[in-house]
Write a structure and sequence with these properties.
With 455 residues, the protein is mainly α. It contains 24 helices and no strands. It has a single domain (13-426), classed as Sodium:dicarboxylate symporter (Proton glutamate symport protein, Orthogonal Bundle). It has helices at 2-5, 14-31, 33-37, 40-69, 72-104, 120-128, 136-141, 148-153, 157-174, 180-201, 204-219, 223-226, 228-253, 257-263, 265-274, 281-290, 295-308, 311-327, 334-347, 357-369, 390-411, 417-424, 433-438, 447-451. The protein is globular, with a radius of gyration of 22 Å. The two termini are 15 Å apart. It is a multi-pass membrane protein.
Length: 455
């Protein structure tokens, strides 16, 4: 009853604010495309504000988690289990995308003449800034930072994570004789960063409004028509894949994914509105920890998943390979489709943080298939629809990484199921300071009262 008496007005809910902002952005971009196209700085500014705190938050979370666990074997087990899960689920996403692409045939009817794609290579190069995806060895070596400062300065999440693990293990080595002042300092630092995140999050509706207005103003609602079948195929595939994730979550973690979705609905809408999962990384980590996942598991799995567990992106890529072939009237054999999956299993792992990464991955895949009737320049056919797909990719990517954390935490025995049940049911639980600060309240209110679906 106390919760009802102190409940905030409906209009102060971040979910409502984001919903209004996204709808307003669509309207502005549709009716006044020039105005909408000029509002991109609102989104860019908000995203930059969040990104400047991601690296230190990951560092603090991982260091504190590992230092308190103090077990190198436990850290290693979590990492290995996470990678096993990532590889299994992303491979399934690729195969699932091929099934959808073969059934729906999103490229059928385009009848594109390959000779008309002469300028496609230049268009793709402009989109990707003439960049390229790192090779496997290069990607793995890049996890090791050239210096600690550069890892933080360049916001290289895997490099920050790598250093944080070593630093946390170094602190844990001291055991009870270690310098508690260092851990206390990092703990206080973590609280400060989450407090600042709380302040920045008040600007989230503004960032979502600017991003949505720009997308619609720049690309137009009319662009949806010509790619309707491809867009529909991708979104239907995403919906079905989320159902599969729900089964995985229930079977392996004992968690109801719908209730969990309602718990993180603010973060989902913010990711959808800004077309970025990075902007919600700090809050998602705080909410997962609050819901019963250990800080160690959350700190290791979520940032790693941002590079290794891009479920939405891999689903999209496999569908697009078939779309390009069908648009050009090419019938890919089973062997060629399997070759595409094998190539995408490698290229999809190095996509995070690379401009135009989906085009680079598709270009590498088309080249590897070696089918002369599908020129690499054909990838330019997707330029008109790629931006519209961001909402699908980020939502599945974000939900996929949350599921990965839940599954690995349960697998490792680091999931507090009773706390999870209470939080998802909206019951009061002992508050975690990080989430209260990330919410911008600073009140330490029971998270269960905020977490459920009763906004």
């Amino acid at each position: 009853m106390a919760a009802s008496a102190t409940r905030s007005p409906w209009y102060s809910s971040l979910f409502i604010q984001l919903l209004v902002a996204i709808v307003a952005g669509i309207v502005v971009g549709w009716l006044w495309p020039d105005v909408g196209g000029s509002l991109k700085p609102l989104a860019d500014g908000f995203i930059k504000l969040i990104k400047m705190l991601i690296a230190p938050i990951i560092f603090c979370t991982v260091v504190l988690g590992i230092a308190h666990v103090g077990d190198l074997k436990s850290v290693g087990r979590i990492g290995v289990k996470a990678l096993i899960y990532f590889e299994a689920i992303t491979t399934f996403a690729l195969l699932f995308g091929l099934v959808v692409g073969n059934v729906v045939k999103p490229g059928a009817g385009f009848n594109i003449d390959a000779q008309t794609l002469a300028t496609g290579a230049e268009a793709v190069a402009a989109k990707t800034g003439d960049g390229e995806l790192p090779h496997t060895v290069e990607f793995l070596l890049n996890i090791i930072p050239s210096s600690v400062v550069s890892a933080f300065a360049e916001n290289a999440l895997l490099q920050v994570l790598f250093f944080a693990v070593l630093f946390g293990l170094g602190l844990a080595k001291f055991g009870e004789h270690g310098p508690p002042v260092v851990l206390e300092f990092i703990d206080h630092l973590s609280h400060i960063f989450f407090t600042v995140i709380g302040w920045i999050m008040r600007l989230a509706p503004l960032g979502a409004f600017g991003a949505m207005a720009y997308i619609i103003g720049q690309y137009g609602i009319g662009s949806l028509g010509s790619y309707a079948k491809l867009i529909a195929a991708c979104y239907v595939a995403a919906a079905l894949f989320i159902v599969i994730l729900a089964v995985v979550t229930k079977v392996f973690a004992g968690v109801n994914l719908w209730k969990f979705f309602l718990y993180i609905k603010d973060e989902m809408f913010l990711a959808l509105g800004t077309a970025s999962t990075e902007v919600v990384l700090p809050r998602v980590m705080a909410k997962l920890t609050n819901a019963g996942c250990s800080r160690t598991t959350t700190g290791l799995v979520v940032p790693t998943g941002y590079s290794f567990n891009l479920d939405g992106a891999t689903l999209y890529l496999s569908i697009c390979v078939l779309f390009l072939a069908q648009a050009l009237g090419v019938d890919l054999s089973l062997g060629e489709q399997i070759m595409a999956v094998l190539v995408l299993m490698l290229t999809s792992k190095g996509m995070a943080g690379v401009p135009g990464s989906s085009f680079l991955a598709l270009s590498a895949t088309v080249a590897a298939i070696g089918h002369g009737a599908i020129p690499v320049a054909a990838v330019a056919l997707l330029l008109g629809a790629d931006r519209i797909m961001d909402s699908m990719r980020v939502s599945v990517n974000l939900l996929g990484n949350c599921v990965a954390t839940l599954v690995v935490a349960a697998w490792e025995g680091q999931l507090d199921r009773e706390r999870m049940r209470k939080v998802l049911a909206g019951e009061d639980v002992p508050p975690l300071d990080e989430l209260a600060e990330a919410d911008g309240s600073g009140r330490g209110t029971p998270v269960g009262a905020q977490a459920g679906s009763r906004d």
